[in-house]
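Bumping with the actual sequence this time:
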Amino acid sequence: MTASRVHAFGDDALADHDAVALAALIRGREVSPREAAEAAAARVAKVDPRLNAVVYDAETPTEPSGPAAEGPFAGVPTYVKDNTAVRGMPTGHGSRAVVPHPAARHGAFARQFLSAGFTVLGKSRMPEFGLNASTEFAEDRPTRNPWHTGYSCGASSGGAAALVASGAVPLAHANDGGGSIRIPAACCGLVGLKPTRGRLVDGEVGRGLPINVVAEGVVTRSVRDTAAFFAAADRYWRNPALPALELVEGPSDRRLRVGLILETVNGAPIDAPTRAAVEATARALEKLGHRVEPAALPVGPGFVRDFVAYWGLLSFLISTFGKRLHPGFDARRLDGLTRGLRALYLRRALGTPGTLYRLGAVRRAYAETFGPYDVVVSPVLTHTTPRLGHLSPRVPFDDLLERLVDYVGFTPLHNVSGAPGLSLPGGVTDAGLPVGVHLSGRHGDERTLLEVAFALEQERPWRRIQDPDAAETAESTDPAEAPAA
């Protein structure tokens, strides 16, 4: 651990195991669930004073019981994001407008998540209602990137990503309404799969939306952890409308047609480190025998306007009906981003039917444009993770919205279309910060994305935060932490 880089890896029960390896040790009784939970708690105590990734630590962790006690991840410690109900734990949605109350019961997705056998230690931080792409707050300290604490860890599953990247836990729950699994995965050097709409049980956040843009999942340090989680979830409940996923254990020997995208919908520039990471990934896929060719985007600039309008609609619903969902809700305490999106929506509210109609047509456009490809490679974000403060909700709304639209140039397409998308590490910047690469797949075909991710993980192993060369790189530029935002 250095002045700017924070991790908790060490010689304890967790070592540098991923979740699959740790679960195997627990099944073999080489490590007990209690030892694993205590090691994780000690690691959190070590790193969280600097990272601010945990919003709630449970005095009594939620341990597996019944069939879950024999689940594939039985005894593996983890955290659940602060927008998902776990019995006995409060849920605050990252907002001072919400008065957190302990949940009376597990939420629908929480039951699916817990069926795998996890021990839940608490709740991870997120920005207000998951609307921002950086886990920063108007009145509280930000959640920091463990690779360099002066930079953003992404959002909205930023606390989850910071905990996994720092080694505090091997895997953590995340969800994605515009990139919120994939963005923090890219910022923190992790694997993050946003599945096909309907692949997992819907959480409370996405239920009832005009277009359900929210997907549940996890952030992990290895492809096999992500694959094993989705296989476990599939055993709990399988959507009969989708192809069975089952366990993906490695690359396929199929030769694939791969599309390559290096342009944004709105013309925002892609920075040099991001472009280099995507091009290096394309070359690696060609080396593996796949055919790579340029691909077109399935949507135009109007998609950005429609998604921002929908973003505003969600903010309007939160601020208008918050009291019905959250006793004690106080809209006066919402941050500037939420209030600004609500005001933007109200100026354009008469256009809502047209917005919903056009967004509803995106699924077909995606299928028609990306359908000829087995996988499409693109950036996750238009530029590498920014310094803390760049996306703070304290920034004037018009400036912040422009920054967000230019930054989040790729991920919302999959939330609207319902298609799967996967972020995985593609390289590092000169400052030692991870750069993510995005894989897009056909609806229902997470298997191909995981197989390609396995192949890239083997062909181009990514740098780990605890590697000595990572420390040297991270300290080569500006070791000082940015001011809290």
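The tokens above came from a reply further down the thread. The chain has 15 helices and 13 strands.
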